[in-house]
Design a protein that fits this description.
This protein is an alpha/beta fold. 54% of the residues lie in helices and 14% in strands. It has nine helices and seven strands, in the order H-H-H-E-E-H-E-H-E-H-E-H-E-E-H-H. The strands form two sheets. It has a five-stranded mixed β-sheet with strand order 5-4-3-6-7, covered by helices on one side. The chain has a two-stranded antiparallel ribbon with strand order 1-2.
Length: 247
C-alpha cells in the first residue's frame, strides 16, 4: 500500500543511529552545535592552563634543583673525569696500574697539579707528602692524584718517584679537561674533593702550607684570601684618605 511504501522510503533515507542518539529537531541540533562550539572554545583555554601549570611546575623543579645544589649535592663525578686506570705505588715503591674506582671511591681526593720544572712545586711537594703521610697514618680516607705538566716521561718518572700517592699516566688526555673544569691557572694547585664529589677547596695549597694537620683543609685558603682582600681594601682606603687630606 501507499502508507507502507512511504514508511519504507522514510526508513531508507533516514541516517542509521548506530547506538548514538540523533537530534530529532532543529532545536536539538542547535543545542548540540552550541555544546560542540563551547567545547572547541574551551580547549585552547585548557591547553593554556596546562601550559601555565607545566611552566610553574618546571620553575619549581628548577628552583628545587638549584636549592639541592646550594645545599651541597655532589658536583663532580670524579671517576668520569679520570682515566679508567691510574698509577699507584706499592709498598716496595714499584709503580703499577689499578682501576681508578678502586683507588678513589669513598675517599677525599686531592688533585695535585704540578711539574718537576716548577720551583714552587718542588718546594711544596715535600710539605704535601708530610701532610699526606700524617693524614693516612691517622686513618683518614685520603688520596692524592698527581696531574703532571712535565715535558717528558723521563722527568715525570723522576719526579713521581719521590711521591707516595696516585698519578695520572704521563700524557693522559684528561689533564686539559681537569684543568679547565677546576679553572687551574697556575701550578702548583691542589684541589680537594670529598667522597661525594663536593669541592672542598680549589686552593688548598695555601691551607696546607698554613696548617698541614688541618685535614681536609676546608675553607682555610678561602678565609686567608678574604683577609688578604680586606687588608688590601683597608690599605687602598688609607691611601685615598691620605691623598684627600694632603691635596
Amino acid at each position: 500500500s501507499l502508507s507502507r511504501r512511504s514508511a519504507s522510503r522514510r526508513r531508507l533515507h533516514s541516517p542509521p543511529h548506530r547506538g548514538i542518539a540523533q537530534p530529532n529537531s532543529y532545536a536539538d541540533r542547535t543545542r548540540a552545535s552550541a555544546v560542540a562550539a563551547a567545547a572547541t572554545a574551551a580547549a585552547p583555554a585548557a591547553r593554556s592552563s596546562d601550559q601555565r601549570e607545566l611552566s610553574v611546575n618546571g620553575g619549581n623543579l628548577r628552583r628545587h634543583q638549584a636549592s639541592a645544589m646550594s645545599e651541597g649535592s655532589p658536583l663532580v663525578d670524579l671517576r668520569s673525569c679520570l682515566p679508567k686506570e691510574v698509577l699507584v705505588k706499592g709498598k716496595d715503591g714499584q709503580v703499577a696500574s689499578r682501576a681508578t674506582r678502586d683507588v678513589i671511591t669513598g675517599k677525599f681526593v686531592g688533585l695535585y697539579f704540578s711539574a718537576s720544572w716548577c720551583p714552587p712545586c718542588r718546594s711544596f711537594t715535600p710539605v704535601l707528602i708530610d701532610a699526606y703521610n700524617k693524614a693516612t697514618a691517622a686513618g683518614k680516607a685520603f688520596e692524592v692524584v698527581f696531574v703532571s705538566s712535565d715535558n717528558s716521561e723521563e722527568s715525570f718518572d723522576e719526579y713521581y718517584r719521590k711521591m707516595p700517592w696516585t698519578a695520572l699516566p704521563f700524557g693522559a688526555t684528561q689533564k686539559s679537561a681537569l684543568s679547565s673544569r677546576f679553572k687551574v691557572q697556575g701550578i702548583p694547585t691542589l684541589v680537594i674533593l670529598d667522597p661525594q664529589g663536593q669541592v672542598v677547596s680549589t686552593n688548598a695549597r695555601s691551607a696546607v702550607m698554613a696548617d698541614p694537620a688541618r685535614f681536609p683543609w676546608e675553607g682555610a685558603a678561602e678565609s686567608g684570601n678574604r683577609y688578604r682582600n680586606l687588608i688590601m681594601w683597608l690599605l687602598l682606603g688609607a691611601w685615598l684618605l691620605y691623598r684627600f687630606l694632603w691635596r
